[in-house]
Specification:
By secondary structure, the chain is of the alpha+beta class. It is built from 15 helices and nine strands.
Length: 392
Amino acid sequence: MSSSLIGVLQYHCADIDSACPEPEPSQLACLADVLGRLPDPRRTRGRRYRLGSLLALCLVAVLGGATSLAAIARFAADTDSELREQLGLPASTPNASTLGRVLARLDGDALDDAVGAWLARYAADPVDEPGDTLVGLAVDGKTVRGSRTDGQAVYLLAAALHACQTVIAQRQIAAKSNEIPAFAPLLARIDLRGVVVTADAMHTQRAHAEHIIAAGGRYLLVVNGNQKKLRKQLRHLPWKQIPLQARTTGAGHGRRAVRRLKVCTVRPGLLFPHAVQVLEIKRRRTNRKTGKTETKTVYAITSRPPEQASPTQFAELIQNHWSVEALHHVRDVTFGEDASRVRTGTAPRAMATLRNLTIGLMRQAGWTNIAAAADHYRSRPHHATAMLRLTA
């Protein structure tokens, strides 16, 4: 089998209907080397397994749907000699406690930076023509509930590409209240040129806007009660004189939703830096079971000028921002993240990073159903190990 990304993805996609992306091979690095170059927290004396081999084992097992350290150890014990050789493992295989000790002592930032940078080199929203599709990057946080010890649970702030639900940056923070100071460090290693950063109202901060603009990006931020004066300004814009510019519908989680969008270009004087347009989104949700309807008006501001984005594109950005919630749902339901009892050191974060990497690889391989993808790689582990051989 070819070791290039294009060859591997096309080979895997022979079993599914969706089309594979075609990234440039010259922009890729070998995933196995990326994992192998991470700093090893262990002393040299007494090492039985190379760090890169252990992380490769964990990734291949998670690609096959492993949700715990015990499941990874069982996968390792069941592997044949050929697969162990591909992973760089000796005749013996590590047990769950060995894996747990290694993951618990890893440098979480180094792991996230290496994995995020590797994914960011090819996992991008597909753009056929300039201006055809806006590249959206959603910033959102998630609690790994199963990691709770002494009342504290691991909380991760992540930046994920809209279209492919791929996390390209992640940081662990103390709690949700610490998201604001973690925003700039999270985005510091990402090239924001041509990217629209989307975030909820917590991140509608002037310093955040300045950071995004200074990095060459654009923003689309929700305005809520934490910016009372700004929200009051937005509410008093001449919305009644502006015609409806976009309408989208959707269904999910037992609800039917209709969103109506209006866009207003604003003059200098708005109480937020670099904002040039304001969006009014009227969202109507109907519970299919009870028939109860809720209506809510949401305001958002953007630094993207009118000539660079249409109202329809803004509607897509707003709707696609919540694709990060779908990513969290996959991690919880398919990979049992919230039910996981991995709690020691950086192990919960490392497992979450491996799940992010797994989902990113699956999405890039064209899979729309992650559970089906896990079944595929569980029964065909050589397809999973092929991911490790992706070379430039």
